[in-house]
C-alpha cells in the first residue's frame, strides 16, 4: 500500500497516487475534452460521484458523449454505452430489462443533453417512463444544440440568440418559450422528478441519491451553463447558473407522482437583467431598440410567473434556500 | 480480451493519457493575502490565524498565536479601539467580526487556566538589553527580547509595572486583576524588573548604555502640556491625567457642581465619566473634534473607542463638538464660566490644516471648574541630551533615534502613536530590530502590507449572521469598581468565529475541489506545502478559472501561464 504524501514542496506531491486517494468516487475522470468551464462536465461528474459505483450509464449523442469518449480513450470509470441521438432512454430500457432478467440490482442511468431529451429522444424517454423502467434519466440542460454549433432547441429560453434564432429585424432571438419539460414528465405520474443546478452541488448529490434509491422511473433536469454557447467567460459559469436560480428563471423544484413536493426557495429574488447581462446570447436585449426593453420586461415576467406558480419566494433565512444552500463551512462540505 | 467485431470500446479512465493541461493559458495559484484585520493591527496580531485555530477547537494554540505578537491580549481586548474590526471585510456584508471579544475570551481563558507563554525562559544567549519604562511599549519590548533570548533589565520610576494602563485607565474599563495577571505573567519570564528607579535620579543614561548592548526607551508622555486661554488660568487649575491618576491611586476627585473638560481623547472621556459618577451634576466635554457617527469623517472624530463615547453619552456627559474655549470668565482668580466658539480644522495654505474659529458663534457655559486634557509630552528628566527642546523623541519607523546608534524609542514618547496597541507594536518592532542588529539579520519591515479587498471574495458562499454583543452593566448598576463590559462564553465565541470570511486564506471549504469540471483540483491527505488542503493538477487543469471565481476567500488567483 502506498503511504500518504507528506507535507513538503508542491512538486513533492505524487499526483497519480493522490488522485487515487481522493475521498470521493470518480465516475468521470480527468482528461476529457470538455471546453473550459463546462457546466455539463461538472454536472456529470457530480451525478456519477453521487450515484456510483454500481451503475450502468447510457448516453445520447451530444457534447457529453463526444468529449468523454474520443476513441480509443474514455473518461468514464463506469460501464457506459452510446448508440444514437434519439435512443438513450430506449437503450437504457433494454439494459434495465436485461439486468432484471439476470436478477441484478445495478442501477441504470440514462443521460442526454437538452436536444436529446426535449426534442430528438423525447418519445423514447416518454416510452421509458410509461413502461415504468427502473431508470434514472438525467438531462443536462444547456439550452441549445451546443455540440453541432449552437442551434436552438426546445429548451432554448425565449429571446436567446442561437445560430438558428438570431436577433434581427423580425425578432429578438428565439420567438418561442422554453418547453416546460418537467410538466410533461410530471404528466407521466412517475415517482420522482426534479430540477437542479450546477451552482448547488449538494442539492444535486441529494437528488441523485434520492432518485437512484427509488424503484421505478425517475428524472433529473440539471441546468448546466455552456460558456461557448451562452457567450460567457469560462470562470463565471457557476455564477451564471446561480443567477438563473436566484432570478426565478430556472426554478429548482421536486415533483412526486406529478405533484409539486419541494422547491428551493429564493431568499432575495434578483432582477433578471443581472442574469441576462452576463451572457452574449442576450446581448441584443441591451441595445437601444425599444423591442429590447420589451423583451427584458417579458423575461422578467416569465421569472415572476415561475416564482408565483411554484411559490419560490422564501420566507426569511433558510439553510436550504438560494442563499443558504451553498454556504461554505471551514473544513469542507457537510452534506 | 475478446475483440469486438462491431462498434468500438475503450478501457475505463483512459482519458488520463490526454493531458488537457496543454490547453491552458492561465493557471490557478494559491495566494495567501494579508487579511485586513491583520494588516490593520498596530501590534501585528493575526486575528484571522488565531480565529482559524480557535475554529479547529484549540483555544490554547489560538492564544499562543495571539501572544506571538501581543503579550497582553486580555488588556488590549478591553482598551484598544480595535483597528482590526474597523478594517474587517465583513462590515461590507453586515457587521464586522467582534474580534476584540474573541481576543478577550482567549486572554481571559489564559489567565483562568494559567497558560504559559510559548517562550523558552532558560534561553539567555543574547546580548543584554535595557528597557526604560514598564508601560505597554516597554513590557512588549521586554517580552519580545526575552522570546529572542536576550537578558532584559526593565526599569520604571513607579512601584509597579503597567505604566499608563495602571495610572490612567479606570478599573471600570480594565480591572486591575486582569492587568496584574498579564503583567505578572510577563515579568516572570526572567526579566530583571527594577521598580522605583527613575532615570536621571537613580541611574543615568550613560550608565545604562555602558551596561547594555541596546537601550529601548518607553517613558511615555507623562507631562501635561501647558494650557492657558490668552494667558489666563484659574488659580486652582488641575490637569486631566493628574486628576485621573490621583483618583486611581488615592481614590479622591474634586466634586464641583459643574465642570468643563477640554480635550478629545481617552483621558477627557474617562475623566468625565469618573467625575459624573462621583456626583458632579453637569459634566461637559469641549472638543475641537467631531463626534463618532455613521457619517462622520474618521479623521475628524474624537480619539476614543466608539463604545466608550456611547457609554459616556448614556451616562449623561454633554459633548460640545467642534468647539474651543475662547475666554475664561473669572471672578478674581476663580472661574465662573467660559466662552466657547465654533471651530473647525480646515485645510490652510501650504497643505497644512489650521483651526478656524467662527465669529458670531460664541456661547457662554457656566461652570465652576475647567480641566484641560489636551495631551501630554515627554517628561525630559534623564533624557535632556537626547530630547533637546522637543516635546517628543524623533525616530524612524522602527524606533531608531537619529544619531544615537544603540537607542530605540517607542510608545507615546514618540508623539505619533496614541494607543496601547500601537505602543505594544512599537515594543515588538524595536525588539525584533535590536535582535536583528545584534545578530546581523535583516531588519523588520514596518511598512503596511497590501491586503485583500472585499470584491476579491465570493460572498455568495457566506450567510448573513448577527454580530455578537457583549453584555454590559445597566446604567444604574455602573459604579467605580465593577467592569462595565463583559465577555462572551464559548458558545457565543464559536458563533462569532464562524462569521469570519477567512480573507485571503484557505478555509478548506472544498469549493474548488467540488466545482472543478476537470477533476484537476486534488485534495491532499495532509496539509499541502502552501498551507492549503488542495493542490492543482496542472497536467489536466484547463485554466477555466472557475475555482478562482468561486473561491469564497480570494485565496485562488489566476496568473498567465
Task: Describe this structure as you would to a colleague.
The complex is a heterodimer of chains A (about 325) and B (about 550). With about 325 residues, chain A is an alpha/beta fold. Helices cover about 35% and strands about 15% of the residues of chain A. Chain A is built from twelve helices and eight strands. Chain A has an eight-stranded mixed sheet with strand order 2-1-3-4-6-5-7-8, sandwiched between helices. In chain A, strand 5, helix 8 and strand 6 form a beta-alpha-beta unit. In chain A, helix 2 crosses helix 8 and helix 4 packs parallel to helix 6. Chain A starts with 14 loop residues before the first helix and ends in a 26-residue tail after the last helix. The N terminus of chain A is likely disordered. Chain B has about 550 residues and is of the alpha/beta class. Chain B contains 18 helices and 19 strands. A five-stranded parallel sheet of chain B has the order 4-3-2-5-16, with helices on both faces. In chain B, helix 12 links the parallel strand 7 and strand 8. In chain B, helix 3 packs across helix 6. The longest helix of chain B has 20 residues. Chain B starts with about 25 loop residues before the first strand and ends with a strand. The interface between A and B is large, with 64 and 57 residues.
The greatest inter-chain interface is formed by: A-B, 64 and 57 residues
Radius of gyration of chain B: 28 Å
Order of strands across the main sheet of chain A: 2-1-3-4-6-5-7-8
Helix content of chain A: 25-40%
From the spread of the alpha carbons, the general shape of chain A counts as globular
* Assembly category: heterodimer
Query: If you average the pLDDT of chain A, what whole number results?
Result: 93
N- to C-terminal separation of chain A?
A: 29 Å
Main β-sheet of chain B: number of strands, strand sense, barrel status? 5 strands, parallel
Q: Could you give the count of β-strands of chain A?
A: 8
Amino acid at each position: 500500500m502506498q503511504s500518504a504524501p507528506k507535507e513538503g514542496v508542491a512538486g513533492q506531491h505524487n499526483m497519480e497516487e493522490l488522485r487515487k486517494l481522493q475521498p470521493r468516487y470518480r465516475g468521470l475522470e480527468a482528461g476529457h475534452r470538455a471546453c473550459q468551464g463546462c457546466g455539463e462536465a461538472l454536472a456529470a461528474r457530480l451525478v456519477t460521484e453521487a450515484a456510483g459505483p454500481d451503475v450502468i450509464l447510457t448516453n445520447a449523442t451530444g457534447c457529453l458523449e463526444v468529449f468523454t469518449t474520443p476513441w480509443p480513450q474514455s473518461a468514464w470509470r463506469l460501464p457506459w454505452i452510446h448508440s444514437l441521438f434519439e435512443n438513450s432512454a430506449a437503450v437504457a430500457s433494454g439494459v434495465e430489462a436485461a439486468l432484471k432478467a439476470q436478477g441484478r440490482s445495478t442501477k441504470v442511468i440514462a443521460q442526454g443533453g437538452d436536444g436529446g431529451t426535449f426534442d430528438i429522444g423525447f418519445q423514447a424517454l416518454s416510452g421509458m417512463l410509461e413502461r415504468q423502467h427502473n431508470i434514472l434519466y438525467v438531462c443536462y440542460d444547456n439550452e441549445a444544440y451546443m455540440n453541432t454549433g449552437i442551434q436552438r432547441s426546445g429548451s432554448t429560453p425565449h429571446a436567446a440568440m442561437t445560430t438558428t434564432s438570431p436577433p434581427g429585424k423580425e425578432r429578438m432571438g428565439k420567438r418561442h418559450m422554453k418547453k416546460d419539460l418537467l410538466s410533461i414528465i410530471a404528466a407521466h405520474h412517475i415517482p420522482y422528478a426534479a430540477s437542479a443546478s450546477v451552482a448547488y452541488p449538494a442539492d444535486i448529490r441529494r437528488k441523485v441519491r434520492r432518485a437512484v434509491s427509488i424503484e421505478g422511473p425517475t428524472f433529473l433536469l440539471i441546468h448546466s451553463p455552456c460558456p461557448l454557447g451562452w457567450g460567457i467567460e469560462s470562470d463565471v459559469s457557476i455564477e451564471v447558473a446561480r443567477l438563473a436560480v436566484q432570478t426565478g428563471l430556472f426554478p429548482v423544484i421536486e415533483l412526486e407522482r406529478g405533484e409539486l413536493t419541494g422547491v428551493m426557495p429564493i431568499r432575495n429574488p434578483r432582477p433578471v437583467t443581472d442574469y441576462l447581462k452576463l451572457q452574449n446570447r442576450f446581448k441584443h436585449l441591451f441595445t437601444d431598440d425599444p423591442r429590447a426593453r420589451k423583451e427584458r420586461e417579458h423575461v422578467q415576467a416569465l421569472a415572476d410567473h415561475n416564482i408565483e406558480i411554484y411559490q419560490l419566494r422564501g420566507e426569511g433565512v433558510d439553510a436550504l434556500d438560494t442563499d443558504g444552500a451553498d454556504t461554505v463551512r471551514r473544513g469542507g462540505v457537510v452534506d | 480480451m475478446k475483440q469486438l467485431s462491431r462498434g468500438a470500446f475503450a478501457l475505463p479512465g483512459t482519458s488520463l493519457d490526454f493531458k488537457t493541461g496543454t490547453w491552458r493559458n492561465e493557471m490557478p495559484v494559491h495566494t495567501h493575502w494579508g487579511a485586513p484585520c491583520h494588516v490593520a493591527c498596530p501590534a501585528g496580531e493575526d486575528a484571522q490565524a488565531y480565529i482559524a485555530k480557535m475554529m479547529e477547537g484549540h483555544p490554547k494554540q489560538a492564544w499562543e498565536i495571539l501572544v506571538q505578537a501581543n503579550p497582553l491580549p486580555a488588556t488590549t481586548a478591553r482598551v484598544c479601539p480595535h483597528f482590526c474590526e474597523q478594517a474587517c471585510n465583513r462590515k461590507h456584508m453586515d457587521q464586522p467580526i467582534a474580534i476584540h471579544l474573541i481576543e478577550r475570551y482567549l486572554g481571559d481563558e489564559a489567565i483562568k487556566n494559567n497558560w504559559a507563554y510559548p517562550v523558552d525562559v532558560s534561553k539567555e544567549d543574547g546580548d543584554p538589553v535595557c528597557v526604560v519604562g514598564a508601560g505597554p511599549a516597554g513590557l512588549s519590548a521586554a517580552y519580545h527580547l526575552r522570546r529572542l533570548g536576550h537578558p532584559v533589565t526593565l526599569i520604571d520610576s513607579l512601584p509597579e509595572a503597567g505604566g499608563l494602563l495602571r495610572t490612567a485607565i479606570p478599573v471600570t474599563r480594565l480591572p486591575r486583576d486582569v492587568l496584574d495577571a498579564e503583567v505578572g505573567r510577563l515579568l516572570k519570564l526572567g526579566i530583571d524588573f527594577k521598580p522605583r528607579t527613575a532615570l536621571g535620579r537613580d541611574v543615568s543614561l550613560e550608565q545604562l548604555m555602558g551596561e547594555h548592548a541596546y537601550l529601548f526607551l518607553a517613558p511615555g508622555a507623562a507631562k501635561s502640556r501647558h494650557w492657558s486661554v490668552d494667558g489666563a488660568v484659574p488659580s486652582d487649575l488641575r490637569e486631566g491625567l493628574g486628576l485621573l491618576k490621583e483618583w486611581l491611586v488615592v481614590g479622591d476627585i474634586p466634586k464641583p457642581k459643574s465642570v468643563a473638560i477640554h480635550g478629545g481623547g481617552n483621558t477627557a472621556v474617562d475623566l468625565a465619566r469618573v467625575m459624573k459618577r462621583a456626583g458632579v451634576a453637569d459634566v461637559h466635554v469641549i472638543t475641537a473634534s467631531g463626534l463618532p457617527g455613521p457619517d462622520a469623517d474618521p479623521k475628524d472624530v474624537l480619539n476614543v473607542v466608539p463604545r466608550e463615547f456611547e457609554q459616556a453619552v448614556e451616562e449623561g456627559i454633554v459633548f460640545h463638538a467642534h468647539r474651543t474655549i475662547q475666554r475664561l470668565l473669572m471672578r478674581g482668580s476663580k472661574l465662573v464660566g467660559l466662552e466657547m466658539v465654533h471651530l473647525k480644522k480646515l485645510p490652510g495654505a501650504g497643505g497644512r490644516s489650521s483651526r478656524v474659529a467662527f465669529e458670531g458663534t460664541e456661547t457662554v457655559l457656566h461652570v465652576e471648574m475647567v480641566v484641560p486634557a489636551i495631551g501630554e509630552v515627554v517628561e525630559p528628566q534623564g533624557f535632556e541630551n537626547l530630547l533637546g527642546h522637543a516635546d517628543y523623541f524623533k525616530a524612524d519607523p522602527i524606533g531608531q533615534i537619529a544619531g544615537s546608534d544603540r537607542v530605540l524609542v517607542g510608545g507615546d514618547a514618540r508623539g505619533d502613536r496614541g494607543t496601547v496597541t500601537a505602543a505594544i507594536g512599537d515594543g515588538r518592532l524595536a525588539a525584533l530590530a535590536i535582535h536583528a542588529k545584534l545578530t546581523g539579520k535583516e531588519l523588520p519591515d514596518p511598512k503596511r502590507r497590501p491586503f485583500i479587498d472585499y470584491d476579491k471574495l465570493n460572498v455568495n458562499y457566506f450567510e448573513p449572521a448577527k454580530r455578537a454583543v457583549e453584555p454590559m452593566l445597566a446604567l444604574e448598576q455602573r459604579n467605580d469598581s465593577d467592569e462595565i463590559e463583559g465577555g462572551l462564553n464559548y458558545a457565543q465565541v464559536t458563533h462569532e468565529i464562524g462569521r469570519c470570511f477567512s480573507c485571503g486564506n484557505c478555509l478548506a471549504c472544498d469549493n474548488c475541489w467540488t466545482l472543478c469540471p476537470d477533476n484537476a483540483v486534488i485534495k491532499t491527505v495532509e496539509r499541502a506545502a502552501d498551507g492549503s488542503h488542495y493542490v492543482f493538477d496542472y497536467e489536466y487543469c484547463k485554466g477555466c478559472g472557475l475555482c478562482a471565481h468561486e473561491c469564497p476567500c480570494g485565496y485562488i488567483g489566476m496568473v498567465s501561464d
